[in-house]
Design brief:
- The structure is a single chain.
- Helix 1 runs antiparallel to helix 2.
- It is built from 6 helices and 8 strands, in the order E-E-H-H-E-E-E-H-E-H-H-H-E-E.
- It has a single domain (5-256), classed as Urate Oxidase, CATH 3.10.270.
- It is an alpha+beta fold.
């Protein structure tokens, strides 16, 4: 019979807030608004708390629990995983982070050329000893912006740059990733595309020029819509422009509780 060292008692009298596995690459399936289900690859971290008297946790059980859900990610499955983690590992709290790329087929604005855009998404879930659960969805959306000040003071042209808007939300019921992406893209000077023909380049250049936005404008426009959404219980939105004429980024952040 092999000795289970992890089950032995620890005498240092120090509890651990989070212990588990980190950065596990795993195939998952997520809900897709257009196609029903989308397959992608996630980086997953799973943790539980460890009482002061316990020497260690059983790391292999995290992967076994994850595999039982056949890699389909939903609010229900994440909730079940969180509760199973506490039950199987005899813990009071559990935590999971699922980071993945979400792909949307997008047509260029004039020529209609198709290409896939990838959006960095993550779901962060936790559950405490009273089964109080917390779930946060994060979506990062690439955008382009034209500086209103540069346009105003320049005789010709205006400086423009690519940026990223990060939206984090807590919600009462399911929320589509596509809806967040659409909201952000409509709040920018212009969308970012994976494929652009010459006629598309003309369109996005002129469209962005006629729709200049500071990072302050972008976060306020996104926040204005989220505030009106009764399904959203909390959100944060940040915009970062990777400036084309500075060696720093421009940044703005709003949090609404």
């Amino acid at each position: 019979m092999m000795i289970d060292i992890q089950n032995q008692r620890d005498h240092r009298n120090i509890s651990i807030d989070k212990v588990g596995i980190k950065n596990l690459k795993y195939p998952i399936k997520v809900l897709d608004k257009q196609k029903g289900i989308q397959s992608t690859v996630a980086t997953i971290s799973m943790y539980v708390n460890l009482p002061h008297q316990c020497k260690g946790t059983h790391m292999s059980r995290f992967v076994q629990m994850l595999h039982q859900f056949k890699s389909k990610v939903s609010l229900e499955s994440i909730t079940n995983i969180l509760e199973d983690m506490k039950k199987i590992l005899e813990a009071e709290s559990s935590h999971i982070e699922i980071i993945f790329s979400y792909f949307i087929e997008k047509k260029s604005p004039v020529a209609g050329a198709k290409g896939f855009m990838d959006y960095a998404c993550s779901i962060i879930g936790s559950s405490d000893s009273n089964k109080n659960r917390d779930m946060i969805l994060k979506v990062a959306v690439p955008i382009s912006s034209v500086c209103p000040c540069s346009k105003e003071i320049s005789d010709v042209g205006a400086h423009n740059q690519r940026g990223e808007v990060l939206v984090s939300t807590r919600f009462k019921k399911f929320i589509w990733i596509e809806n967040i992406i659409d909201l952000v893209e409509k709040s920018a000077s212009c969308d970012v595309y994976s494929v652009l023909k010459r006629e598309d380049e003309k369109y996005v250049t002129e469209h962005a020029y006629n729709n200049p936005k500071f990072v302050e404008d972008i976060v306020r426009d996104v926040a204005k819509i989220l505030i009106k959404d009764d399904n959203i219980t909390w959100f944060s939105v940040s915009a970062e422009n990777f400036e084309s004429i500075h060696n720093h980024s421009a940044y703005a952040y709003i949090e609404k509780k």
